[in-house]
Write the structure tokens for this entry.
Amino acid sequence: MPLRKIIRIDEEKCDGCGKCVPSCAEGALRIIEGKARLVSESYCDGMGACLGDCPQKAIIIEEREASEYDAAAVERHLRQDQRPSQLNNIKRERPSPSSYPSCPGSLAQSLGKDGAGRTEKPNFSPTALFSRLNNWPVQLMLAPVNAPYFQKARLLIAADCAPFALADFHASLLEGKILLIGCPKLDDLNFYREKLTAIFRENIIMEAEVAYMEVPCCFGLVQAVKQAIAESGKAIPLTLTRIGIRGEIREKDKPVAKMGEGV
């Protein structure tokens, strides 16, 4: 069996509340005999969307020998379990982390003066809002690994919903940063982790910040970034910014990690 990341449930801590079960898009968790159980190793993608929903902190991600994740088996499982609404969330085959579509709209661009990022405000009225966006594309799926704007970048990795919830997202979080966005619930977190690992490894990233929503499924983005930093072998300062669904910044955390270790 391959060595890979997969969840482990501490039965002594688990009180069987069941809050983790609906957070798993693959249906890999069930409450059996009063405890959360992993139904099958092949159903678990190892990205940890369930972690943020466990009030007892009974679920962790560890690296060990385990059966490969099997998207086809997950699809059969969800159909048998009568959960067709979750089928669109299954992680299927994906492109290489270094590849991206050849559409002209995905051409990597620095938006500021001389390609160096925004250095001055547009000529708007004093009360007008203005964009702090410094790069294009912003979708993590589309951004090329070796885009020039990644060199010595301060990186902001945001959940898709974050700019809509946080009214002053540009002013409070985006100033002077390179933006990447994605949805940890609907997109492929394994692909995100692999691509972020390549970005961290192949570029000089000065620091990274994750802007994620307070809803449990959004914690998967935090896990993907942490794992990517660890797998890159670099010590990149990380800030975790949790945003409430009512539009407030709920918490800022700066976990500390040694080089090559998860934060």
Observations:
- The radius of gyration is 19 Å.
